[in-house]
Amino acid sequence: MHRENLEAVLREFGIDAGQVETTELDDLNLAWHRLDPWPDTVEGLTRLKSRYIIAPLSNGNVRLMVDMAKHGGLPWDAILGAEVAQAYKPSPEAYLRTAEILALSPEEVCMVAAHNSDLAAAQKCGLRTAFIARPHEHGASQTTDLQAQGNWDWVANDLVNLAKQLGG
């Protein structure tokens, strides 16, 4: 899917993917695997990990999550998500199967996200919710998810702040 999207973006800019070296396209396509985490992420996750199980619930594939963890030093306990749950967010199965895999009830799981729609879907499944704004996630002109827009259990300005709120 990433490769298809990359080739579509290249076409938008008048670049024929067939004229680009395959190795260059492969490397560019894997840039997602080398994303640096937000500055508060490693410290915040480490603090949360001292009291809680932490795992990404991503629509990205497991290999992507593994590579991001290795590149950025992300201290996840497990890597979950669409591949493991066999369902993509916002499907209820994605959230509920994740809780089941962890041998937890939905109310024992907290979905932490910068996307109000993701939190709304998780909340409908009985998960606890925590919103962290990432106002530049989609660039300087981002207009959505700038603030909490639901009755979330926690709202924090970053993961370190969330960890403090949760006693970590």
List keywords for this structure.
single chain, 168 residues, mainly alpha, 2 domains, 3-stranded parallel β-sheet, two-stranded parallel sheet, 8 helices, 5 strands, 41% helix
What would you say this structure looks like, in words?
The protein has 2 domains: 2-32, no CATH class; 37-165, Rossmann fold (3-Layer(aba) Sandwich), CATH 3.40.50. Helix content is 41%, strand content 10%. The protein is mostly helical. The model has no long low-confidence stretch (mean pLDDT 95). The protein is globular and about 55 Å long. Strand 1, helix 4 (62-72) and strand 2 (80-81) form a beta-alpha-beta unit.
Terminal residue distance? 37 Å
Radius of gyration, taken over Cα atoms and rounded to an integer in Å: 17 Å
Number of strands: 5
- Tally of DSSP helical segments: 8
Counting helices, strands and paired strands, the structural category is mainly alpha
Principal-axes geometry comes out as globular
Please state the second-level CATH architecture of the largest domain.
3-Layer(aba) Sandwich
- CATH evolutionary superfamily of the largest domain: HAD superfamily/HAD-like
Strand order of the largest sheet: 3-4-5
How many domains make up the 3D coordinates?
Answer: 2
Order of helices and strands: HHHEHEHHEHEEH
